[in-house]
UniProtKB/TrEMBL annotation:
Its cofactor is Zn(2+). PANTHER family: HISTIDINE BIOSYNTHESIS TRIFUNCTIONAL PROTEIN, HISTIDINOL DEHYDROGENASE HDH. Substrate binds at residues 232, 254, 257, 323, 356, 410, 415. This is Histidinol dehydrogenase. Zn(2+) binds at residues 254, 257, 356, 415.
């Protein structure tokens, strides 16, 4: 893991040194998959599952028997943890609920906003290198609270044609309506356009690999999506009060996601920077996903020395990280210096995994700098709004000249005429 200055980091970033996928190569594959799923439906899904996941399936939907097997396979300790996390996530997201509103004025004008949940949502849950029951909770719970009528999950099977029992148990606990054994770009295509088994949805949410992300980009417009997620990332701001053991552990917790994950520490203490680097090497040796971590840190891991916290926060706001940890003295007093971050963790005892699994706020967050303009997933992502407008005849007449003037200024005489015929009828 490199020790560099802020200027060196900017030079690397601007030169494109931080590792990224070649979208052109991925897009060629993804567009072929989308085309075949649109043309061949379930047949294409089964063929790609055999080709890419190494298993030949007879059907795509998870059966009731498989749900029962999953319940029996997981531990009571896991069930207890899942229920506690579900409660925290529910309590937090319940505060995001929105309601319709209307205003009435004495001159006969009623305006308002009608809030309506989406009809059907598809949740993508990654598989492959790890199982993610937490993703089930984070995506299904806010959709349920929004009032979405039908929520389905797609997730890739293992080589035995099975879905993780933890994922299935979580899906059942939060009330998902169906789970389908299909992953990758083919799952996104199925959710976007529909097949005989997997029906078209209004919106697709949930993280995935590069192929999933690019597929979401290509189907966007035919269906809504939450975001185009890039590699997972963490940025830790640390001063001399931070524990090098804590900082190292938190950087490693992101690096184990995959080889493209980004782990960055910005520190005002050169001594701490050296201690963190040494501690990372020591802790890595003890971790199961050592090989992935080492590749991730080599490509995208950086410890950046800065002169003071002002420089640190300036760099943070340029990066706009997915996860930001403030491991500094009195972190809440510095919160106002943060403009762009997906989730902000304050202090030495609020590590990023707390947000991933348990605290309550959503862990589906904007990545790759998009926190500069995007927000975490929430109940609001599963709602749409309709504007309500009602004028009385007299209220319309009072506004008619202004409307006609605006329409004629734009050269839209039919718009103006729509008002004029009512004006003429009023004075007739």
């Amino acid at each position: 893991m490199k020790l560099i200055t802020a200027e060196q980091f900017r030079q690397e970033r601007d030169a494109g040194s931080l590792e990224q996928d070649s979208n052109a190569e991925i897009d060629e594959i993804v567009l072929t998959i989308i085309k075949e799923v649109r043309e061949s439906g379930d047949k294409a899904l089964l063929q790609y599952t055999e080709k890419l996941d190494g298993v030949k399936l007879n059907q795509l939907a998870v059966t009731d028997e498989e749900f029962r097997e999953a319940r029996n396979a997981v531990s009571k300790t896991f069930i207890k943890a899942l229920k506690a996390a579900k409660q925290n996530i529910t309590d937090f997201h319940a505060k995001q609920k929105e309601v319709s509103w209307f205003t009435h004025s004495e001159d006969g004008i009623m305006l308002g906003q009608k809030v309506t949940p989406l009809d059907k949502v598809g949740v993508y849950v990654p598989g492959g290198k790890a199982a993610y029951p937490s993703t089930v909770l984070m995506n299904v719970i806010p959709a349920k609270l929004a009032g979405v009528n039908e929520i389905v999950i797609t997730t890739p099977p293992d080589t035995n044609g099975k879905i993780s029992p933890e994922v299935l148990t979580a899906a059942e606990m939060v009330g998902a309506d169906a789970v389908y054994k299909v992953g990758g770009a083919q799952a996104i295509a199925a959710l976007a356009y529909g097949t005989p088994t997997v029906k078209k949805v209004a919106k697709i949410v949930g993280p995935g690999n590069s192929f999933v992300a690019r597929a979401k980009k290509w189907v966007y417009g035919d269906v809504a999506i939450d975001m185009i997620a890039g590699p997972s990332e963490i940025c830790v701001v640390a001063d001399e009060t931070a524990s090098p053991e804590f900082v190292a552990a938190d950087l490693l917790s992101q690096a184990e996601h995959d080889e493209q994950a980004r782990s960055i520490c910005i520190t005002t203490s050169p001594t701490l920077a050296e201690e963190i680097k040494q501690t990372i090497d020591q802790q890595t040796e003890k971790l199961e996903r050592k090989e992935i971590i080492q590749k991730s840190l080599s490509a995208n891991g950086r410890i950046i020395n800065v002169s003071d916290l002002a420089e640190a926060f300036s760099l943070v706001n340029e990066i706009a990280p997915e996860h930001l940890q403030l491991m500094i003295e009195n972190p809440s007093e510095k919160l106002g210096m943060v403009k762009h971050a997906g989730a902000i963790f304050l202090g030495n005892y609020s590590p990023e995994p707390l947000g991933d699994y348990f605290a309550g706020p959503n862990h589906t967050l904007p990545t790759s700098g998009t926190a500069a303009f995007a927000s975490p997933l929430g109940v609001y992502d599963f709602l749409k709004k309709s504007s309500i407008i009602q004028y009385s005849n007299s209220a319309l007449q009072a506004a008619s000249d202004h409307i006609i003037t605006m329409a004629e200024a734009e050269g839209l005489t039919a718009h103006a005429n729509s008002i004029k015929v009512r004006k003429d009828a009023y004075h007739a």
